[in-house]
Amino acid sequence: MGYFPFFVDIQGKSGLIVGGGRIAAHKAEKLLPFLPKLTITAPEIAQELMDNPLLDCQKRAFMDSDLEGKFFVIAASGSQELNRHVAELCREKKILVNVVDDKEACGFLFPSLVKEGRLTVGVSTEGASPQAAALVRSRIAQEIPGSMEEILDYLAGLRAYAREHITDPGRRAGFLKEAALLCMEKNRALGEEERESLCEEYQEVEGKRPGTVTLVGAGCGPWDLVTVRGLDAVRTAQVLVYDDLMDARLLSHASESCEKIYVGKRKGRHSMGQEEINGLLLQKAKEGKRVVRLKGGDPFVFGRGGEEILALREGGIETALIPGISSCVALPAAAGIPVTFRGLSRSFHVATAHTNREGGDMPEHLKDLAGLSGTLVFLMGFGRLKEIAERLIEYGKSPQLPAAVIRGNFGGTVRVVRGQLWEIARKAKEAGMEAPAVILVGETAGMDLGDGRRQEEEGVK
Question: Which sequence positions are flagged as catalytic?
């Protein structure tokens, strides 16, 4: 259906509720904070409606002439026949009408409302489930600061200040967006020093100090595994530089004015080299921008985040790091596999099958890894799974040692292939497993502590 959530000014507009019972009272309660001129018409009208000085209550039967001059009408009588009659008349007269418990006869639907001063949030399921809308409404209400009205008054007045001090429309929009975010985080209006300091960041000043670059770990899997601090950084970024292995829904949290630059690697498409990425980050920061470098997993776990920070510091750019959840622990956990477990594994060791900048050789210390008693976790090694397993057995690992291959997705589920070390490569191939995937070798790889709902388990034959 084409229900668009217009916000319409009904203050002083004439509205009619046909019906005077409990449902009519509920509708009137929702409408009155918006100050319409509301008339109630019904042979019997609840006392709470009669006692309300803001309502014009007329205890009589509905007449067709009652619709004259009305901006909107609500048919809430106990008679389906009367409600349908009112709806038909409204359609003829081009009057918006809501018919209780009859979506097909409605010209508009009542949302589940949250109203805190100037803030109004409407939630609708197009009539599919008012209960679901009410639950969403409740969750939204919990997120609203207690001083919402004070914050909105402050932000409304801040527009004039922004027009006076920031000439560029794009910078001005960024300033207002970040001011709103800070007010919501702090649950109060900004102080004068805070406002002026923020304003300086968005002013075009000759010789202005360079911007900043924040490396943010996007986490592993669905977008909501990013940290709260990381999400705040994305929301306030002026430039967002991102790559693969992250949920694209995370990008929707960036400002509309944010410049989004993709630098990832995809099969069949040109990818930007690390030196080019370093240069891009340096360039954008020197333009005075607040840059967020968004990287899948954690920037310091085989993510070259350290290289980027060193290059930026050499260029005189202020940097910061916000850690992310790495796939080395996130995917095993999602599959119900603990990387450590008392009595089975007192340590875990993370390695990559790529040991040089071009991703060529196997790890030189694979023999040393094979001698360790904890859980071995290999990242970026799926293409060499067979070779890894053979080498580990050659270096002393038991062929019967449990092993697992895990692949996640942005929906939150995982695919798991379990087996013994000698057979894990064959089983992964038979299951059609693809990169990227995490490889686990060790006693805990045979465990399954999952809840059974977030896994897509591949059977072991």
Answer: 243, 265
